[in-house]
Amino acid sequence: MSTQVMTPSTGRTAAPAPEPSIRDIIAAARSTPVRAPARAAWGLSLVSGLMLWASFTPLDWAPLAWLVLVPLCLLIRTPVRTRWLYSAVYFGGLVQSVASLQWMRLGDPSMYFAWMALAFYVAMYLPMFVACCRAAVHRWNIPMTLAVPVVWTGLEFFRAHLLTGFSWYYLGHSQYRWTTLIQISDVVGAYGVSFVMAMTAAGLAGMLPLAWMGKLRLFLTGTDPLVMQAGEPCDLRTVRRQVAVAVACVAVVAATLVYGVIRRGQAAFVEGPKVALIQGNFTASLKHDPNAARDIFNTHHRLMGMAVFPHHPDVIIWPETMYRHPLMVASPNLSPDDLARVAPGVPNELWRQSAVTMALSDMAKQAGAALFIGIDTLDAREDKLRHFNSAAFIRPDTGYVGRYDKLHLVPFGEYLPLRNALPALQIFSPIPQEFGLTPGEAARTFTWKDCRMAPVICFEDTVPHLVRDIMKATRDPETGATADCLVNLTNDGWFHGSSELDQHLITASFRAVECRTPMVRAVNTGISALIDGDGVIRDPEVFIDGDGQGRTTLRDPKTGRWHKQLNAVSISHIPLDNRSSLYVRFGDWFAALCGFCCLSLALSRFLPQRKAVPAVA
Q: Is residue 347 domain-shared with residue 492, that is, in the same domain?
């Protein structure tokens, strides 16, 4: 219907004004947005944060993880953002990160700062996720079911690399028990599992009726273009689009599961060397107590004896730094005066003796087994004294063979960033002022019983690209084969039996799938375990309770939870895997591509607004 207007000056009737089209109304609404109240944003963000926390240990409610992103997707779907949107989303992420990372404070009172700093940093990724997705959906008309998984995966990729990296609590990690689903990790890494889950959550959010969003006050009725679209004659197309999205999501999940079934069916595990994982129970503070060194050695030596007789393992593994006497190495070119200059206070004769290597060689000969021993290394060179966190390898026939020095150091735990520029940061670190580790130079492999083993130390088993690079570096130039087994030596005694021990093991299990390589883990205080190439955390063939409490399995049969904080030995044959890995061969191409798209979307927010009808499916 047109409208006639009488002009006051002439009294004549003006020409009828054209009735605005639907697109004109939408354009007008978008040019003068009226933001909905912030209550829905705060509520949905808090729900999402709490669900994300509950999806991981200690609650470990894995099915809930499939719904974690649905509340955030509703905030992405609404065309006009609510008031305080990004503050609310950041708050929800902060709740999750503070609760999930609470175990960091247990290491030392000074670690409270590191706990809060890391929590505030990790929480930033949720508002960045919402902002990039909103740019994709409302500026570039990209379907939400594509934008959400791409952005989420890209941000996980950035989190793995920025500020030395933090590859914990990925969305896909929550599904470690659904072994069929996580097999896609040998193609695109654990990122692929997160991608599938994020896509499913976006599909669910896109199919929720607009009336539900109205009840959540995600828009103001009569002013929001999304509401106006509900009355357009394209409803049938919308329904068809939603059906297509549902079919696509189901197809992606189904294809992932089919791939998992096929890949698991291709496994032909071969029994490898018998390995004994020695697990002491010492808090990290005792590790630095020189008066506790004898007790630490005696306990591990006693447990090793319980493993040797009557089980006769081929390889025995001690946890990280549990051999408390350092391995001392000096360059042969250094004179006594040079040694006194490089390492003042250290008696000169200690550098020329081989007491530690002789003692370790005697241990291996007595046990009749090869040893991986976690040990500190002091390496005197011409320029300065270097301190390494090492894994020494000793054969029973030839003695000490060599060592692997940890490549990826933990800031504030193994070295102090900006020590010279900002010495005041020392108060935030539990390590002594004179302490500081040097990163290693290269990956190493050690062979025993025709099994090539590649050590990784501490949190290195949580860094996907690092483990992949180590595996690639172990490739035999003649056969092209990589290492047969990953050997992780860890000290989780900092965290006093908290959920960190569980999450560390869970995160490490994805490295076994990505590389199609079994991993054995000897961990101070636990959880020592064997993980096969499918990512299955296997019960040991023999479990020895070193505390005499009668425990015979890795898990508590009543609760199903892993035993922690105990002296124990786990003995199993390594299940050698015959499969190869595309992830080892090609790396993080998929996650890096998602990261590039995510960065492009972030930069696009600074471009002029593109006026287009948003896609919400």
A: yes
Q: What pLDDT score does 430 carry?
A: 62
Angle, CA of 98, 100 and 102, to the nearest 5°: 65
* 467 and 384 part of one domain: yes
Residue 20 carries which side chain, given as an amino acid letter?
P
Instruction: Look up residue 580 and give its amino acid.
Output: S
Q: What is the pLDDT of residues 439-470, one digit of tens each?
A: 999 999 999 999 999 999 999 999 999 999 99
Domains contained in the chain, number:
2
Q: Which domain holds residue 353?
A: 270-407+442-578
Q: Report the amino acid identity of residue 100.
A: S
Residues 69, 148 contacting (CB under 8 angstroms): yes
Return all residues near 445 (Cβ < 8 A) that are at least 6 apart.
452, 453, 454, 474, 483
Separation between Cα atoms, residue 512 and residue 534, nearest integer Å: 7
Do 240 and 277 have their domain in common? Answer: no
SS3 for 576?
Answer: strand
Amino acid, res. 58: P
Which CATH number fits the domain that encloses residue 350? Answer: 3.60.110.10
- Does residue 454 share a domain with residue 310? yes
What gap in Å lies between CA 163 and CA 422, rounded to an integer?
A: 17
Element (H, E) at 457: strand 451-457
CB 126 within 8 A of CB 100: no
Reported as a single tens digit per residue, the pLDDT across 562-575 is: 999 999 999 999 99
Q: Which residues fall within 8 angstroms of residue 281, CB to CB, at 6 or more apart? A: 299, 493, 524, 525, 526, 547, 565, 566, 567
Q: Which residue is associated with the tokens 């692929």?
A: 192
Asked if residue 452 and residue 308 are part of one domain, the reply reads: yes
Is pLDDT above 70 for 29? no
In tens, the pLDDT along 393-449 reads 999 999 999 999 999 998 866 666 655 555 555 565 666 555 678 999 999 999 999
pLDDT (tens digit, 9 = 90+) per residue, 529-549? Answer: 999 999 999 999 999 999 999
DSSP-assigned letters across all residues of 122-159: HHTHHHHHHHHHHIIIIIS---HHHHHHHHHHHHHHHH
432 in any annotated domain: no
- Burial annotation 231-261 (CB, 10 A radius, 16+ → b, else e): eeeeeeebeebbeebbebbeebbeebbebbe
- Cis peptide leading into residue 527 (ω within 30°): yes
Residue 287 has pLDDT above 70, yes or no: no
Tell me the average pLDDT across 233-260: 86
Bridge-based pairing state of the strands 451-457 and 446-448: antiparallel
